[in-house]
Amino acid sequence: MARDTTRRRKRERSSAKLKQLPRRIITNLYSPIAVLSDDQIESIHEASLEVLENLGMKVLSDQALDLLAAAGADVDRATSQVRFDRGLITEWVAKAPSEFTLHARNPANNVPIGGNRIAITPISSTPNCSDLDRGRRPGTYDDFCNFLRLAQDLNIIHFLGGYPVEPQDLPVPTRHLDAYYAFATLTDMAWRTYALSVQRCIDGINMACIALGKTREELAREPAIMTMINTNSPLLLDGPMADGMIEMARAGQAVSITPFTLSGAMAPATLAGALAQQNAEALAAIAVVQIAAPGAPTVYGGFTSNVDMKTGAPAFGTPECTKAALAGGQLARFHGLPYRSSNVNTSNAVDAQAAYESEMSIWAAMMGHANVIHQGAGWLEGGLTASFEKMIIDAEMLQMVAETLMPIEVNNDTLGLDAMAEAGPGGHFFGTAHTLERYETAFYEPMVSDWRNFESWEEAGALDATQRANGIWKQMLKDYEQPAIDPAIDEELKAFVARRKEEEKAAV
Amino acid sequence: MARDTTRRRKRERSSAKLKQLPRRIITNLYSPIAVLSDDQIESIHEASLEVLENLGMKVLSDQALDLLAAAGADVDRATSQVRFDRGLITEWVAKAPSEFTLHARNPANNVPIGGNRIAITPISSTPNCSDLDRGRRPGTYDDFCNFLRLAQDLNIIHFLGGYPVEPQDLPVPTRHLDAYYAFATLTDMAWRTYALSVQRCIDGINMACIALGKTREELAREPAIMTMINTNSPLLLDGPMADGMIEMARAGQAVSITPFTLSGAMAPATLAGALAQQNAEALAAIAVVQIAAPGAPTVYGGFTSNVDMKTGAPAFGTPECTKAALAGGQLARFHGLPYRSSNVNTSNAVDAQAAYESEMSIWAAMMGHANVIHQGAGWLEGGLTASFEKMIIDAEMLQMVAETLMPIEVNNDTLGLDAMAEAGPGGHFFGTAHTLERYETAFYEPMVSDWRNFESWEEAGALDATQRANGIWKQMLKDYEQPAIDPAIDEELKAFVARRKEEEKAAV
Question: ipTM, 2 decimals?
Fold first, then answer.
């Protein structure tokens, strides 16, 4: 109990230095934007069932094929092709819960996933990182840890969606051990395991048990980690990913499944077609998870965007990407599943393009009731670079839309007729009692935005938003304090990592 | 007829050089985002009726006071204070039409105002302008004309909302004559008159008659110009503005009325209060218009934003501004009136802040079913500067949201099951018949966004979005061709301007 209090106080202290919204789960009480009619949702769903029934899905995992065959799917062992009866698919998918909670080392950071709640993760899985001082470069463990420190102190971030940047200076076979150790100690939020191998999942589950002081059985009842799987669109489920997600689901941990349906390349060049394929692939993979572990927490992911038809280059934050993100939410709710979307853009610089493409994604995610906004802060270059400045600007943009979701209070007090009488025609409201009462809390206060007039702004150095963000993340790193951790837990995590490294070395 | 064809061809030719969406009226078939419940709308409306009944509004025009007194309002001549019976207000406001069409010199550019249609105007009424080459400077007639040329060639712009920048090098008494001449000849869209004096409105009406080849009676039946009025919040209606709008309404021309309810300064520091005051002021001014000319086309404007409580500086594109813009649409529809919103921001540079604050405004306007997005393209610095680069970036952002409003087509063809069969598991869609058929038109093609990979982008000079926008507007000015005009009409306009300038000179 005493430990918890210290931990929370530390958190508040370190966050207090940057003026930001308080840490809270975002709830969207407005109706989601509906870009599809009920009939259209039905048509897309029917088309995806037809795809699964007639074309089927290639599944490159013997374990998954065994499970599917036993459950009644039509499995062709020679081609690894699986065809799904539409009745069975629906039955399996229905076993997934519509909501669950992801548990953090600090219970104050537990995250409900589902309903009209929105949880946000920072950037993940990029090879490069960049900042205004050092430019673009391959990621290192040092950069990796700095992104975690920022994520820990940005209240708009709810849990970790993966390696913010790949720590390329660490050896591949044991990289995940150092990464998970940093997740568990530099932050006190829930985190992600990588399902690139079963072993990485097992290590993640064991380290989560240690960090949260729980047995595997306890962790199974209270999931603490999530893995993010994608299908290899079109219609292919990779072996290690399938095995990894089965491992996670059987341990009661969360699995988020996102088809990579890039319209025009990995999916039809029409949104209806790309969405039908997205839906087919997601349902097939969710079925595998639910056959392996009925009731395991599962998230329906949408990542449909389009390519530049002239070059084949992927593009994000486009109008098509925006509509697909809104439609994806409608499809996920149709199945009664939590929905994952993203904050993406294609820009190579932290400029107006990065901001407006990201805004398209954020509005679609927030107003489409995404339950997880993955890649929420820091994404640049179509996901090839994690930017320190972009992370701060994303946090501001996310805060602004989150604040927009706070309903307007209408009552006698807020209608302020007395204030109008006090100010009088042509008068001013600065000095009214009504204004003075709410001076501190009336309006959103920005982190990055500069509202000074041109002259004052110019005199102060004429810094643009990206340059100001540069100052903010550096100050945040200076202010960062590691969240408290029971020394015995820290020791146990360290010992686990050391032992597993020895085992990996011996295996080589 | 022959003239019309030439004109349209010219328009197409000059626009064809920049890849952009075709010129069309934007229609939003999705439901507007509702930030207020029906009960809350009712409460805000009731509060504003109470304000008008008890506090009333100061009206600094004898003509307006006479009209109001004759119509049954409670007018105090000593204080110019008018109190409105709630039954009468509702009765007068109900006379305004819910939709109308603004007629352009080129009938292809006529703009329907109302319903679920969205029309966009460029920046207006800024003292300064800026671009990357010459920086920030007081506006000149040359800059003014260049902004008009861009507005004419950007398909996302539907009519002119005023002087894009104040032509400060022209003498004040006759400035409007040169400005209207430029409106009528450099563009073939509908335009705005300034109600800073009755004479400026009369000149505008006369010049619109000449430009469109219509009598005053014909123009009254088919309005061609709009004036944008604001109330001097709180609860004050300026004399020249009141007289100007009465003149316009009696000539059958459109009047847009926007209270300047800056929450915390000119309105209560609560959104409910600021909206109640906005509603009260708008209804009072609309009542004046409808008493003067029952049925005159009238637009309900919302411009509620907030100040920075620490400095008193106005802020735009904030979460409060966004919610107020959405709520304003609900209030306007409650009254059955067309709704005007804006594309605003507070940034001093064309940077990420300018983009994300503008996106907040654009999403609120588009998803709130604003019928007029005034200040749609070019706004910077809270409206103190018109930026050439921002105009291009705004056009891109507006196009992207407009394209997002185009519903997803769902049918057997777009569902693309054949394409999935052709590509096969793990295959590619580039070469499928389904993709090849729609190669040219499948996706939105950007004007400013650069989707190349980092290496190609860096090799091409690593230009950010603002630098690319700089190249685009300069190219557009090179490509610009003045829309065709009947030489007799041009002569008549010139003669009118010359005559009126002589009169003004004689009057001094």
Answer: 0.96
B-chain CB neighbours of A419 within 8 Å are 268-269, 273
Residues from chain B contacting residue A328 (CB–CB below 8 Å): none
**Minimum CA–CA partner of A346 in chain B:** B451
Q: b or e along B33-62 (b: 16 or more beta carbons within 10 Å of the residue's beta carbon)?
A: bbbbeeebbebbbebbbbbbbebbbbbbbe
Over the stretch A209-262, which tens digit does the pLDDT of each residue have?
Answer: 999 999 999 999 999 999 999 999 999 999 999 999 999 999 999 999 999 999
For B259-297, give the secondary structure using H, E and C: ECCEECCCECCCHHHHHHHHHHHHHHHHHHHHHHCCCCC
- B113 pLDDT above the threshold of 60: yes
Cα separation, A148 vs A142, in Å, equals: 10
Q: How far apart are CA B367 and CA B333, in angstroms?
A: 14
pTM of the complete model: 0.96
Q: For B32-41, B349-358, B409-418, B436-445, which range has the lowest pLDDT when averaged over its residues?
A: B436-445
Q: Which tokens in the block code for residue A460?
A: 């102060």
Min Cα separation B496/chain A (Å):
39
Q: Is B101 on the interface with A (CB under 8 A)?
A: no
- Could you tell me which residues come within 8 angstroms of residue B304 by beta carbon, excluding any fewer than 6 positions away? B259, B261, B262, B263, B267, B271, B274, B275, B278, B320, B321, B324, B325, B327, B328
Cβ of A276 under 8 Å from any chain B Cβ?
yes
| A251 backbone dihedrals φ, ψ, rounded to 5° | -90, 5
Amino acid B4: pLDDT: 42
For A413, the 3-state DSSP assignment is: helix
Helix A319-335, helix B388-404: angle, nearest 10: 30
A399: nearest CA partner in chain B: B319
Closest listed residue to residue B260, CA positions, set B281, B289, B231: B231
| CB contact A50 to B (< 8 Å) | yes
Cβ–Cβ contact A426 with B under 8 A: yes
Q: Is the dihedral of CA B225, B390, B396, B446 positive or negative?
A: positive
Q: Rounded distance, CA B397 to CA A363, Å?
A: 13
Contact of A64 with A242, CB cutoff 8 Å? yes
Q: Residue B112 forms beta bridges with which residues?
A: B101
Q: Which two tokens stand for residue B453?
A: 């990979």
Give the DSSP letter string of A186-224: H--S-EEE-TTSHHHHHHHHHHHHHHHT--HHHHHHS--
Structure tokens at A221: 């009842």
| Chain B partners within 8 Å of A45 (Cβ) | none
Residue B353 near residue B347, CB atoms below 8 Å: yes
> For residues A124 and A160, what is the distance between their CA atoms, to the nearest angstrom?
8
Distances (CA, A) of B136 to B129, B161, B481: 6, 22, 27
C-alpha atoms less than 13 angstroms from C-alpha of B402 in its C-beta half-sphere:
28
**Which is it for strands B372-374 and B339-342: parallel, antiparallel or unpaired?**
parallel
CB A93 within 8 A of CB A290: yes
Show Cβ contacts of residue A330 under 8 Å, excluding neighbours closer than 6 positions.
Answer: A32, A34, A35, A36, A41, A368
* The two structure tokens encoding residue B370: 């604003």
Tokens read off for A479: 């202010």
Instruction: Confirm or reject contact between A394 and chain B (CB < 8 A).
Output: no
Residues 167-226 of A with CB under 8 A from B: none
B459 exposure class (CB count in 10 Å sphere: 0-12, 13-18, 19+): exposed
Q: Which of B50, B85, B74, B57 is nearest to A417 (CA)?
A: B50
A308 to chain B, any CB pair closer than 8 A? The answer is yes
**Phi, psi (degrees; rounded to nearest 5) at B196:** -80, -15
CA distances in angstroms from B254 to B199, B219, B300, listed in the order given = 16, 11, 11
Per DSSP, the three-state class of B96 is coil
Contact residues for A317 (Cβ-Cβ < 8 A; gap 6+): A344, A345, A346, A356, A357, A358, A359, A360, A361
Q: Rounded distance, CA B284 to CA B48, Å? A: 10
